[in-house]
Every structure is written in structure tokens, then in C-alpha cells.
């Protein structure tokens, strides 16, 4: 407590002669605390003595001044800020700059799960989804980003958005010529259907597996789309592994897809390498996984051998040693699963 604050506290609680209005209303002291810049104890003492000489009517007037001041200083709640941004989006005459600002504000505000849960009640989902059709690609990009952020690990919001039938639109946006728009749309799709069985059914119903296959088999696609696609694929396979009683989809045995995933193990991007290796591990663990296809068509053994040599070099580098060791452990785990499956496939064919 600074010296001025300490003086104010002692003065308020220690002076019996202070009239009842001042004694029962600490807001009065806040006024002269602000007025004197809460920096000079002598000035604060003088202001307090002046306050004693005020009549009840004058004290009441000062109280109203304090109330007005505090209202001006009061920060609006997140809910209020969200409503302001949503109302702005619903204003058809809003400028592009202000529309962009409103969406940026929502992007920040929906991060806490409680705010995300309130978004639909405030009309925010409808307003943001409408922006997916806006002519400006930056507006569409931020709108998709908001939907993804709000629905991430949030079943309530996932289901709200899916019920509004927007998944097909997001999948269409993945094919945008604007890379940032395509990337954020794929991010939103991944967030919407992660651990959501109904969302995944809708995804497959919209030929989502073909979308992933087209991205992963196209070497000219932006690497960010490759990363997000391989991450989504690994997640879908993991969900399939958890639901062992479900009929496994032919998609996961598609040789074009499998070859595309294995080829990404050779990517110069280490993050993409790791994601591809993790996806291969999950694919190998599926019941119908055909190890002979992984060997003869995908040449998984060749890629794993090449990766081993690359990691051996990285392990010697102090800057990448820890990461390379972790990757080697994962590579070895995939190799063991592959060899075990391969032995079973060979023994079954003899």
C-alpha cells in the first residue's frame, strides 16, 4: 500500500468526527483521491478536511459525480463486447475495415470456452457463417477461423455449427485459390469433426476422404494444407481405432492415399515428417491394414530406412539431438508394427 493509500485508509477508519455521509460512502474519497493525483499525502489530507465541511446535499452531488465517473471507467463484459461486434456484422452498411475489426474482436473473444458457448445465443454463429460468402477473401478467412476456434474441443459448439449445415461450404473453401482461406477452412473442418462421430459421418457424406486424398497426393499444394490434412487423417484413423466395432472404411485402404502419406515421410519439413509418420502408425494398426501394400506399393521399408539415416545425422547435432531421438523412437515403433504385420501377411499367403 503506498503512502497515500495508507493515509486514506487510516483517515477513513480512524476519524470519529467524519460525518456519516463521508464515513459510509468510500466513493467520496475516491473522488478526491483521483482529484489530487493520489500522489501527495498533504494534498490528500487537505482534500479530506475540505470534504468534512461539505453539506449533505453537496456530498450527495459529489457522490453522483463519482457514480458517473465510474460508469465511464467501467469495462464492458465479454458478452457485451461480443454483442457489439455481432451487431456490427449485421449492419449491411458497415465498411470493410470495420467488418474486419469486428471479426478480429470476435476471434479473440471466442477463445474462452464460456464465451464460445454464448456465441450462438447472441446470434454470433449465424452472423459469422453469413460472412463465409463475403466477396473479400480476408473476411471469409477470419470467419472460418472463428468457427474453428469456437468449436475446438467443444462438443456443444461443434454440434451447433454442424446443425447449421455449414460443413459443405467449408469444404468448398478448402479449394480456394487463396491459401490462407483454404488453410483456415481446413482448420475449421478439423476442429468441427474432431472426436465428433456425427460430424465425421457428415464429412464422409460430403466426400471428405476424396478432399484429403486430393490434397495429400498433390505435391504442389501449400505445405500448411499438407500438415493440416495429414493431422486430420491421423485423427480420423485414431477415432476409427477407438471404435473397433464400427465397419472400417475402404478409404483407409486406398492405395493412392497410402502411397501419398508414406511419400510425405520424405518431406524436408520435419513437422510434416512427424505427422506423416504418426498417420502411418495409425493406419498400420487398423485391422485390415495390408502390410504388402505398404511394402510393394508404398515402399515403406525404403522410406523408413532413409529416415533412419537422416535422424542419425540429426542426433549428432546438439541443437536437434532431443527431437531426433524422439523421432527415432517413433520411427522404430512404426517399423516394428510394419515388420510384425509383414510377417503375418507373408505367413498367411504361404
List the helices and strands and how they pair.
Blueprint: H1 3-14, H2 20-24, H3 26-35, H4 41-52, H5 56-73, H6 78-89, H7 96-109, H8 113-119, H9 124-130, H10 137-151, H11 155-163, H12 167-173, H13 179-193, H14 197-205, H15 208-216, H16 223-242, H17 255-263, H18 270-285, H19 291-297, H20 300-315, H21 321-349
Notes on the structure:
Helices cover 74% and strands 0% of the residues. It contains 21 helices and no strands. The chain has helices at residues 3-14, 20-24, 26-35, 41-52, 56-73, 78-89, 96-109, 113-119, 124-130, 137-151, 155-163, 167-173, 179-193, 197-205, 208-216, 223-242, 255-263, 270-285, 291-297, 300-315, 321-349.
In short:
It contains 21 helices and no strands. The chain has 350 residues and is mostly helical. The protein is elongated, with a radius of gyration of 31 Å.
Q: Classify the secondary structure makeup into a structural class.
A: mainly alpha
Count the DSSP helices. 21
> What is the terminal separation in angstroms?
84 Å
Cα shape: elongated
Strand content: under 5%
Gyration radius, to the nearest Å?
31 Å
Order of helices and strands: HHHHHHHHHHHHHHHHHHHHH
Low-confidence stretches: 4-26
Count of beta strands: 0
Q: Helix fraction?
A: over 70%
Average pLDDT figure: 85
Task: Summarize the main sheet.
Answer: none
Amino acid at each position: 500500500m503506498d503512502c497515500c493509500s495508507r493515509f486514506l485508509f487510516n483517515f477513513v477508519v480512524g476519524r470519529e468526527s467524519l460525518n456519516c455521509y463521508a464515513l459510509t460512502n468510500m466513493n467520496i474519497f475516491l473522488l478526491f483521491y483521483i482529484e489530487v493525483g493520489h500522489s501527495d499525502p498533504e494534498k490528500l489530507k487537505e482534500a479530506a478536511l475540505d470534504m468534512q465541511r461539505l453539506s449533505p446535499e453537496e456530498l450527495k452531488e459529489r457522490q453522483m459525480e463519482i457514480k458517473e465517473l465510474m460508469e465511464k471507467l467501467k469495462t464492458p463484459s465479454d458478452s457485451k463486447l461480443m454483442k457489439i461486434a455481432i451487431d456490427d456484422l449485421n449492419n449491411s452498411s458497415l465498411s470493410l475495415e470495420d467488418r474486419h475489426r469486428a471479426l478480429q474482436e470476435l476471434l479473440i473473444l471466442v477463445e474462452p470456452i464460456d464465451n464460445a458457448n454464448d456465441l450462438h445465443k447472441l446470434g454470433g454463429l449465424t452472423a459469422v457463417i453469413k460472412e463465409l460468402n463475403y466477396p473479400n477473401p480476408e473476411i471469409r478467412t477470419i470467419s472460418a477461423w472463428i468457427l474453428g476456434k469456437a468449436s475446438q474441443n467443444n462438443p456443444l459448439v461443434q454440434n451447433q455449427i454442424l446443425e447449421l449445415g455449414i460443413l459443405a461450404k467449408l469444404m468448398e473453401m478448402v479449394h480456394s485459390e487463396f491459401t490462407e482461406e483454404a488453410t483456415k477452412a481446413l482448420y475449421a473442418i478439423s476442429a468441427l469433426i474432431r472426436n465428433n462421430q456425427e460430424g465425421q459421418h457428415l464429412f464422409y457424406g460430403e466426400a471428405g476422404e476424396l478432399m484429403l486424398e486430393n490434397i495429400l497426393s498433390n505435391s504442389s499444394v501449400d505445405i500448411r494444407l499438407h500438415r493440416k490434412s495429414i493431422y486430420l487423417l491421423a485423427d480420423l484413423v485414431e477415432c476409427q481405432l477407438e471404435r473397433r466395432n464400427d465397419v472400417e472404411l475402404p478409404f483407409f485402404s486406398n492405395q493412392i492415399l497410402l502411397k501419398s502419406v508414406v511419400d510425405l515421410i520424405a518431406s524436408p519439413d520435419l513437422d510434416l515428417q512427424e505427422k506423416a509418420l504418426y498417420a502411418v502408425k495409425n493406419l498400420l494398426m487398423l485391422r485390415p491394414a495390408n502390410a504388402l501394400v505398404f511394402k510393394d506399393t508404398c515402399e515403406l521399408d525404403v522410406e523408413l530406412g532413409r529416415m533412419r539415416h537422416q535422424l542419425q545425422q540429426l542426433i549428432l547435432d546438439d541443437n536437434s539431438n532431443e527431437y531426433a531421438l524422439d523421432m527415432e523412437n517413433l520411427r522404430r515403433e512404426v517399423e516394428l508394427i510394419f515388420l510384425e504385420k509383414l510377417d503375418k501377411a507373408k505367413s498367411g499367403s504361404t
